[in-house]
Amino acid sequence: MQFLNAVIQFLIIFGTALLGLFLGEGNTYLVIMISVIILEAVIIAYLINKITKIKEEMLSTRETFTSEILSKKLKGENTVDITVFPKKSTEFSTNKYTELTLVINTPIEVGNNFDIQIQSDKEINLKVAEFNEIKGILHAGKYLYFIKNNYIHKKMGKYLKCHLAIKLISEHNSINLEITASDQELHGSKSFIINIK
Fold it and tell me: Which residue spans traverse the membrane (predicted)?
């Protein structure tokens, strides 16, 4: 940015010098062209300064926002962030398993008693770590699937990862899923609806 600003200032000084030179000779066309070049250089310099200020404000706002989120997480808000990533597609069917990866972000390091529970309004076939089938328990009209800690991979104590494969048992228009991750101190959940095509 500073290089571009210096070039523009050079153009303004050079154009002003040329304008002074040609004003003495009375060549109207060259005077108008040089005036236009100077005016363009001034406008470009103004816009560059404006863009630079806006970028600095955006970076400052982003840093403030990020630090506020981090401070909330570090000050004892016992929330857990859960993100679901499909492996290839999110088309659920009775013919094949659809693979998902759960990534769980916790504000503090977690121990070995961290639980993941999947709740569904319809019965599903659920496999963890690609081959271990989890049987659901029907409770209050919902199917509950509990994932044991040995199927959860820990990264740096605060990040957890779990691979799931879901297959529908019967055809439905949609299925409501809720994923809950918790221990004695932390709790988080993510709900979503799977629409069947």
Answer: 7-23, 29-48
